[in-house]
């Protein structure tokens, strides 16, 4: 009546295929025993390479069975020649296998070099981009400085142009106070005035708040109702009437308290 759900697939819990016990008759060598070195995950299931290995082993067993007996000199020479031919074939096969391995390693090396070159190219591109960004920032800052210097020189030239003859001009106080954009109402920091300086002069100074004597005089002027607080105790609620019976509201409060408990 109960079911369980695992966190794994059935394929992940599969063990190696079962190999039953066997008995080999005397005098026989089954071909299957020559493949005992192949196990699950290491050669099994068989691929193209394993099939080629099995075919070569069959050809070699057939070649060994076809070797002539060593009962005469001609048979011995023939046997030696066949063994030399087989040895050359095995060496040629081995050389082909080595060439295949070398080709595979060469391909892997090419891929690694290509990947390293791509990473290096990305790193170089990033460095160039950062260098270009730094140059752009420096260029923008230089342009801003040039524009600021240009504006400052233009202001100086305009001021000199107003007083072209080099004469001293008398200050017109009435004109300055009637113009709300003058230095009286909106002074500029470039002429040496900073509005945040001496800001304490705008603070209201009161005798009654900044001195002890003023506080005492202010306290003496306050009425007694401010300094001496009178608290009246609340009258208890009357739960009984003049006749001595309990009020309906009192009974209702008691019932509500019981229900709440």
From TrEMBL:
UniProt KW keywords: Cell projection, Cytoplasm, Cytoskeleton
Pfam families: CFAP91
Presence of keyword Cytoplasm: yes
Domain of life: Eukaryota
InterPro entries attached to this UniProt entry: CFAP91, CFAP91_dom
Domain CFAP91: 4-156
Location of this chain's protein in the cell: Cytoplasm, Cytoskeleton, Cilium axoneme
A GO CC term attached to the entry: axoneme
Keyword Cytoplasm attributed: yes
Main location: cytoplasm
Family stated for the protein in its record: Belongs to the CFAP91 family.
PANTHER family hit by this protein: CILIA- AND FLAGELLA-ASSOCIATED PROTEIN 91
Name of the protein in question: Cilia- and flagella-associated protein 91
């Amino acid at each position: 009546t109960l079911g369980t759900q695992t966190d794994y697939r059935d394929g992940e819990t599969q063990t190696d295929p079962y190999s039953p016990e066997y008995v080999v008759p005397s005098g026989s060598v089954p071909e299957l025993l020559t493949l005992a070195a192949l196990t699950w995950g290491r050669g099994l299931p068989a691929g193209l390479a394993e099939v080629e290995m099995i075919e070569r082993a069959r050809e070699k067993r057939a070649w060994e069975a076809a070797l002539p007996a060593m009962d005469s000199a001609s048979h011995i020479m023939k046997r030696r020649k066949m063994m030399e031919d087989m040895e050359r074939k095995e060496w040629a096969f081995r050389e082909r296998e080595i060439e295949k391995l070398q080709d595979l390693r060469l391909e892997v090396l090419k891929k690694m070099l290509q990947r390293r070159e791509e990473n290096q190219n990305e790193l170089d591109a990033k460095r160039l981009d950062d260098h270009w960004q730094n140059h752009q920032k420096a260029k923008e800052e230089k342009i801003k400085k040039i524009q600021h210097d240009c504006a400052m020189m233009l202001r100086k030239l305009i001021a000199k142009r107003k007083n072209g003859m080099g004469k001293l001009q008398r200050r017109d106080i009435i004109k300055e106070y009637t113009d709300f954009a003058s230095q009286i109402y909106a002074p500029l920091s470039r002429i040496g005035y900073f509005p945040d300086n001496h800001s304490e002069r705008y603070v209201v100074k009161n005798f009654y708040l900044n001195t002890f004597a003023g506080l005492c005089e202010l306290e003496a002027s306050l009425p007694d109702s401010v300094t001496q607080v009178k608290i009246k105790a609340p009258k208890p609620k009357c739960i009984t009437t003049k006749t001595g019976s309990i009020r309906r509201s009192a009974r209702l409060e008691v019932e509500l308290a019981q229900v709440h408990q």
